[in-house]
Write a structure and sequence with these properties.
Blueprint (H helix, E strand, L loop, with lengths): L1 E9 L3 H13 L5 E4 L10 E6 L6 H5 L5 E3 L1 E6 L2 E6 L4 E6 H13 L3 E3 L4 E7 L1 E6 L4 E9 L13 E11 L9 E8 L5 E8 L4 E10 L4 H12 L6 E12 L11 E2 L15 H11 L9 H4 L5 H16 L4 H11 L2 H8 L5 H10 L2 H8 L2
Parallel strand pairs: 1-2, 1-11, 2-8, 5-13, 11-17
Antiparallel strand pairs: 3-7, 4-7, 5-6, 9-10, 10-11, 12-15, 12-16, 13-14, 14-15
The protein binds flavin-adenine dinucleotide.
Length: about 375
């Protein structure tokens, strides 16, 4: 059977669902099919974002509720620590499963959704013909694809952000629930290594061991992580999450017959691995336009070149001089105003913020890698 649609979207992950929630409200007349190979099984992840003035408000825009909001962050390295009150900004954590379910609920009644429908082949013969594992065939004028591809990057200095995290419950009060530990650096000559802690309560926290590395091995990171957790004594493991995210500027499609979105379309910040705000900003710019074959170019994500360029220089330093990276981050957070850093991280810096960020970084090392 060949069922025909105006648009077929492959993958019911973060980018597709955020897109559809907004898009179907504006274009209810279009017949849209959403296919996912296994929406329910995975997605055990935590989405964190910076929020506050001038940054798109995800709770309001997408009707999703954060698991926790923090007003303070801290970083430390050796015996130095930096604590910052972020007001009027904050750091929000969204539970991955709940957020994706909530987004799916918001758009489900306006689309046709098929779960457990792995796409195995796409053919183009006038229309797109999408073939799934169970041999169903669906056709459409326009195709949106959020599958992850082996992308090409614009730099040979490739790093990966690899992390293993455990949400744990302690028998006694252990965490300062008001403060996120953004980066607690460890001394490491070869890679950048830090612990990230999201304290949900005094007893419950997500503790992640993170590496920025050239060739990370998630099993080794998991072992290091388990070793580190021993310092907490007895605890109950509530859940775990892991990921390996490329840190580089993706060479995105400038043309082509279909629309890539999500990670493979460059909607992920090279220096942080965060994508939620990028996806939301992208949708904000295009939701009024009707998607069809004639205007695909309006929908293609164009990453902010200045931010990408700065990320690239920054990642070069991390690539060639990983031992310098803790100093880079410590310098950034201690010297620049927190509002500038937050807007910079959230893809919404003013020119003054960019200048403040550049001025806060150690000059000698940055200049050296600017010209490398
Ligand atoms: C553990 C983890 C934590 C993260 N934390 C943050 C964070 O704190 N903040 C942040 O902004 N970003 C975070 N990210 C990065 C990023 O936001 C997420 O990876 C996000 O899910 C990317 O969205 P996406 O739509 O590109 O991909 P996905 O959400 O992975 O969606 C792709 C979808 O395509 C489906 N699919 C794949 N192949 C097929 C096929 N052949 N047929 C049908 N369907 C298919 C998959 O099942 C999946 O549902 C995190 C990533 C991970 C892995």
């Amino acid at each position: 059977m060949k069922e025909k649609f105006d648009i077929i979207v492959i993958g019911a992950g973060l980018s597709s669902l955020m897109f559809l929630v907004k898009y179907v409200k504006k274009h209810p007349q279009q017949k849209i099919l959403l296919l996912d190979k296994d929406h329910d099984k995975k997605n055990d992840q935590t989405f964190c974002v910076w929020q506050g003035p001038d940054i798109i408000n995800l709770t309001e825009e997408f009707d999703i509720q954060p698991k926790k909001v923090w007003g303070k962050i801290m970083l430390d390295f050796q015996n130095r620590s930096i604590k910052k009150v972020m007001s009027p900004y904050n750091y929000k954590a969204y539970d991955g499963k709940k957020t994706l379910s909530s987004l799916l609920r918001s758009c489900k009644k306006n689309i046709t959704y098929k779960n457990n429908c792995e796409v195995v082949q796409v053919k183009k013969n006038g229309l797109f013909y999408v073939i799934t594992k169970d041999s169903s065939v669906y056709s459409s004028q326009t195709l949106v694809d959020s599958r992850h591809y082996n992308n090409t990057y614009d730099s040979k200095e490739m790093l990966y952000q690899a992390f293993y995290g455990s949400e744990v419950e302690m028998p006694t009060n252990t965490f300062d629930e008001t403060t996120v530990t953004l980066m607690s650096f460890k001394e490491n000559k070869n890679d950048i290594e830090f612990t990230y802690i999201l304290p949900y309560t005094k007893k419950i926290a997500l503790i992640e061991t993170t590496f920025f590395a050239k060739n990370p091995n998630i099993n080794d990171i998991k072992l290091k992580h388990e070793e580190k957790l021993k310092q907490y004594g007895k605890y109950t493991l509530l859940r775990s999450e892991e990921g390996i995210l490329p840190m580089g500027n993706i060479k995105t499609d400038k043309e082509g017959s279909y629309l890539k979105i999500g990670i493979s379309a460059g909607m992920i910040r090279p220096s942080s691995g965060y994508s939620m705000i990028r996806i939301a900003n992208w949708i904000n710019q295009i939701e009024d336009t009707e998607l069809n074959q004639q205007n695909l170019s309006k929908f293609r994500f164009k990453s902010p070149w200045l931010l990408n360029w700065l990320d690239k220089q920054f990642l070069k330093v991390c690539f060639y001089r990983p031992e310098m990276a803790p100093e880079l981050f410590m310098s950034l957070f201690s010297k620049a105003k927190i509002g500038s850093v937050v807007r910079f991280m959230a893809d919404k810096p003013t020119i003054n913020d960019v200048i403040a960020v550049i001025q806060a970084l150690p000059k000698k090392i940055m200049i050296k890698y600017l010209i490398k």
